[in-house]
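Support case: user asked for a sample of complex input and structure output to validate their parser. Sending the pair below.
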Amino acid sequence: MLREHGIDHVKVEPLAQRLGVTKGSFYWHFKNRQDLLKSLPEFWARRQTDPVLAHVQAAPGGPIDKMRSILEFIAREDPDQYDNAMRAWAQFDPEVAAAVAAIDDRRMATARWLFEEAGLSAPDAAFRARLWYFYDVGEHVTRDTPDTVEERLERAAHRLKLLTSDLVSG
Amino acid sequence: MLREHGIDHVKVEPLAQRLGVTKGSFYWHFKNRQDLLKSLPEFWARRQTDPVLAHVQAAPGGPIDKMRSILEFIAREDPDQYDNAMRAWAQFDPEVAAAVAAIDDRRMATARWLFEEAGLSAPDAAFRARLWYFYDVGEHVTRDTPDTVEERLERAAHRLKLLTSDLVSG
DNA sequence: ACATTACCATACGGCTGCGTATGGATGAAA
DNA sequence: TTTCATCCATACGCAGCCGTATGGTAATGT
């Protein structure tokens, strides 16, 4: 419901109907609607960003290799499912905005770290990380992601080259 | 209402109350709620992107100068007001998504044109334009825009340098 | 066999919002 | 002055959704 129609359509009666139960059941598992909504951001974080950040830590090689690895990892994944819905929600709920901002920070900190490892100064790395990460966000939010894995990989290669060609290992 | 709470809170009765009138008045000016919603995308386009694209056409100098001009124009503006709400809406409404995509296309086509003018091949310019434009989108949607004009101008300069340093006029 | 726990259905009251029907009120035109 | 168009208020029926109260069923422990 969140992904397909937005947070305002996460309602208990339609939800119960979609699950083939009644809302009497819902109120057994959750205190109320708000209680359900509060559980969503954490669910999202564990499912959507923890795996990626774990992957980059485990990737072999130098920072550029790690970048390539993370890009290919993302390119092979199915296009985003939750990020857009969470961002849409975050626009109108400060608490959710904070949760999303925390995720953005974690992701961008990783990118920052990689660019510093690649030899950039702290401020330069910070900006380059923004450029790096915002490309992801932009592609998702404008739904400009190519449909085939091949095209996504090609774009990833292009992106890596453009963002690292002036660095030592690039 | 759209900006502050999202499209699902654009309801006729709360809206009428906020305006100090009754809904009897609303149904004089609009056929129904859907009729109001349909008018919003066009309102947004005229107000939010037409001025920027007109500005870049009128800017003097070469493509790099035009880029600098547009960045400074945006930096001096107040941070975005409608884009985020429209994108949040577009996530869940195909018609709105099409309208937003059309705006994205117009903006990105302008960027593409500038990079081609600066000497890039069509595919290179297309990618560079994405990198350019998605930075905007990312900054908006993550609410990472600095509060002061000075900081925004500084970031703009940094961004221009990074995205054009390998071009002839850069 | 009985009681307890876990899980779900039914039924209710209340609120909010949509759309329509109808009735003013005001100003311009004839 | 009468008529008509414009703009807004009032009042109604209807539907969707929330949260609670209450009852039912199946499994489990004693």
